Amino acid sequence: MSVKPEDARLIITFFANARPSSSLQYTSPSDPETFRSQSLACGPTFSSLLAPVISPASPTLSSHSTLAPGIFQSVYNITPPPLPNPQKLRYHPSIKAFEALNALEIVFDLIPCQPFTYLRTVRLAVFDMDSTLINEEVIDELARSIGITDAVAAITSRAMNGELEFEQSLRQRLALLKGVKADVWDDMKKSITIALGAKELIDYLRNRGVITVVVSGGFIPMAAWLTEQLGLDHAFANHLVVAPPNDTFPYPHLSGDLSSGHPIVVPEYKRHVLESLAQENSIPLSETFVVGDGSNDLLMLGAAGLGVAWRAKERVQREAPQRLNGTSLSDLIFLLGGQENSTSSR
After folding, report:
1. 257-313, pLDDT tens digit by residue?
2. Which of 61, 182, 218, 226 could tie 138 with a disulfide, CB 3.0–4.6 Å?
3. What's the pLDDT tens digit per position in 145-164?
């Protein structure tokens, strides 16, 4: 993102690995003392570690606070030049050692200074669907419906780790799904579960006037359904061809092919959706927020003002601008300037 050198704030959010799933209660009697110790380590101790890491830029600790049990945040005013690259800070050996020693994950963000607020300006938020806004991989659930789960899931896993080119892997899996009943989506909507914290996160963004979008390498019937469930503004996903009954499959069924009349949602298309929606709404990319978990999300994660790999595959955690693991998507609210009372459940 582009930040004026004289107006920079480095926002560092620390997430305890053992933080509770609800911000309103501790997980065990020993947790409060653990969190107090972690919070102290994230203040002055981390400040002394940070200075040589971002030198010759000079950090001044402006505030340090506990946002929720196991979630702490420090705000630094940065005197350049040059400004630190938040995407590279987490790879520094000193930062990685600090995380390991204190059982933390650290997310770095650089924003322009604004009077009286540490809110990150976000006007467009784009999310992956499978294993991000929902807990399942829809294509694996389709496979389950005809008893070929293992074969399809193995291809899915390799694709999400970046071991297979996405379009190739998608076509391989769809070929195996030829014959699935066309009305399978009705049953699917009863079994698919929305990820913990997704509603709270989307509600928070909508309350701030943010455009919210799902762009999925999955399928439009489920993306459209999820859009209705969460109140999203737009949905983009793959369209499947439905074939009429025949001698082999005497009912309307999935042909195993993608519709030629719609774009295939490959990594480049995901980035295109982000960039085109930003342009259409006169939103700089620095004011966009992207969340995903698979290798096909890396391009849009890298193009966003803040891109976070959420509970991501191993390769994606290594290569994404930022990463976070947890039990509730509402943890991400704290990266955007939200306080504990912004969400009722984590």
Report:
1. 999 999 999 999 999 999 999 999 999 999 999 999 999 999 999 999 999 999 998
2. 218
3. 899 999 998 898 888 777 88
CA angle 202, 127, 260 (to 5 degrees): 130
Q: Can you tell me whether residue 302 is helix, strand or coil?
A: helix
User: Do 7 and 113 meet the contact criterion of CB atoms below 8 Å apart?
Assistant: yes
The whole-angstrom separation of Cα 221 and Cα 118 is 38
Token digits of residue 117: 């607020």
Measured distance between the N- and C-terminal CA atoms of the chain, rounded to whole angstroms? 29
Q: What is d(CA 300, CA 314) in angstroms, rounded to the nearest whole number?
A: 17
In the numeric block, which tokens belong to residue 256? 């195993």
3-state DSSP of 67-95: EECCEEEEEEEEECCCCCCHHHHCCCHHH
CA distance 111 to 119: 9
Q: Which of the 8 DSSP states describes residue 8?
A: E
Report the share of the chain in percent with pLDDT over 70: 91
CB 173 within 8 A of CB 167: no
- Please identify which of the residues 7, 31, 109, 130 carries the catalytic annotation: 130
Is 150 an active-site residue? no
The region, left, alpha or beta by phi > 0 then psi within -120 to 50, assigned to residue 131 is left
- Told to judge if 297 belongs to the known catalytic residues of this protein, a careful annotator would answer no
Give the model confidence (pLDDT) of 93-140 as tens digits: 999 999 999 999 999 999 987 766 678 999 999 999 999 999 999 999
Which is catalytic among the residues 109, 128, 203, 331? 128
Phi, psi for 128 (deg, rounded to 5): -70, 165
Where do we find the tokens 């480049």? 268
